[in-house]
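Blinded run. Sample ID left blank on purpose so nobody reads anything into the name before looking at the predicted structure. Input follows.
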Amino acid sequence: MTRRIDLAPLLRPASIAVIGASADPAKVGGMPLRLLRERGYAGRVHAINARANDVQGLRAVPSLDAVAEPVDLAIVAVPAHATPDVITQLARNRTRAAVLFTAGFAETGDAGRVLQRDVARRVEEAGITLLGPNCLGLMNLRDNVYATFSPVALAGVPPVGNVALVSQSGAFGAYAFALARESGLGVSHWITTGNEAGVQVADAIRWLADDPQTSVILAYLEGCTDGANMRGALAAARAAGKPVVVTKVGTTATGARAAQSHTASLAGEDAVYQAVFDEYGVHRAQTLEEFFRLGYVLSKGRRPTSRSTAIVTVSGGVGIMMADRAEALSLTLPPLPDAYGDGIRAQIAFASTANPIDVTGQVVAQPKVLTDTLVGAVECGAYGSVVAFIAGGGNVPAAWAAIETAIERITASGADVPLVLSGLVDDARRKWLEARGVLVFREPVHAMESVDALLRANENATRGAAPDDETSVPPAVLAACTASVPAGATSLDEAEALAMLADAGVAVPAHAVAKTAADAAAAAERLGYPVALKLRSRHVLHKSDIGGVRLNLHDAHAVRDAFAAIEAAAARAELPDGFEGVVVARMLDGWGEIIVGCRRDPVFGPVVMTGLGGTGVELGRKMAFGLAPLSRERARTMLETSGAAGLLNGHRGKPVLSLDAAADTLVAVSRLGVAIGDALDTLEINPFIVTADGLVAADAVITATFSFRTI
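Blinded prediction complete.
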């Protein structure tokens, strides 16, 4: 069932009660009253204080029971031990939402976790939307709702805009609010979720995806306990065409431990989070500077429709720097068409129109060439965006006049090609440019990265969800899973695992099961030499570690000797079920190995990984991850980013194989992982052999739990 929490009572309340209201504006119970009054909140405000008749000029009442109307939002500033009684009072008075500032819950240990669960149960039963506990609160800048005890808003607020800030961390949220104010980033909402006994970051993202006042969502994330909710929220934002920028901390073991102790949330494996972000087109920021820069770009920039980009520069060296970054971002740089380039070279003979289009520092003496180049690059039809490095031209009257003229001509023409400038520009001229849709950066590389970010936002919005026929799990696969797993088994032996893979549509080598040396030799004759013999056991994950694998056997004598050696190895290992025979498999004629696996992540469910194995490591070891079930598009991307696609593309003169067929194999593995469901622990195919017929699973391990004895 889709989780959907209405945040309107939190963010757009018609009335607010502050429980634990303080006469001291600097205290937790006093700051919200001060902010609400000073910042012009238009709704009704009630001060709840059992020991005072007047709080900051407001008549105080001893409890919510004394308020004559149901209150939309209660701001709760009481000690943790008093919280359950307050929740009972809120329920009795039909309060719709609550912000719980109080610390002393799950972040403090077992007793705090018990108390937090009790509070969560009470608000759920009462139908109260809860933000917190252990949070800094929220702000709705458009409606002047300041349900926070942070003093950060006293120094001023950012301009009202279309960017929402969501943070699990209150301190990060307050700092981010201050940075947004300093940078002039327009903010719609500011939400901190703390311990998330009620509203999670994902709930905020989902609600903001439907909010007409928000077009970009910036989120700080330490961990996630409800993967399905997060996936649904990110899918909702993508469907709404609203970019999400995430700073995710806890990427290392040390960082993950710190995040868990901070917010009492689960900080999972970072590669899995990255797979989630990749799946839904989330922009990931590694630094605060990048976090806000992406917010600026995505909220103010126009989205290009093509990766074809023009670089116009007054410096050849900087142009090369920008071109290097463009190539890394897969932006294409076609030359300026001759019809326009000839006119530029006629004015400055040594100008280059190859792209980067270098008009040189001569534009100071001949500023018209800068106007003509910018206008020509926009109007020629060859580019999806134009990026110009003007150095100090913004402060040179003649050069600035040329830039103004160019932008006025472009605006008048109605050309829909985004223009980005990099250089020294004062605040007044920056505002003039931004009012006309031109992004401005000091760092030239950031200008190139802005084009890529806007392109990705556009591509993500148009890509949408994968088609059902690419991500559905066929009924036949579900049936195969049920039929193939022996009753009570916690893992599969190789023969069972290969049978399950074959039922799921994965190619496996010709093989047979043999319980005697004679059976093994006969099977080898049928299959054709050379063959491999491998121990059949559900209790040995890595058979070669105990001498349970023999490869490249070319005759019956070698097969019998190998069988005897494996049987002796099994006896030494004292396997619980004894020696159950071997799997005889035809050796595969291949030229590389790819690892493919699927495991169940405790937060996000089945996750597929792939990368190079064996001697293919010379192409570059890199693992790629994706959420199951995969679409073919996502599977192709994983093969490409991991380097595995290189083995399929005629490596060292080998045949060129179908990347789509290889992607279909990954899709089949992902569907099998979904079909096994919550019982899945690990499904690993190591290796997939790259053969002239495509990928063939040479060996497989499938486990449902690690409770069995492994060797």
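Unblinding after everyone has recorded impressions. Residues 489 and 704 are 8 Å apart (CA to CA).
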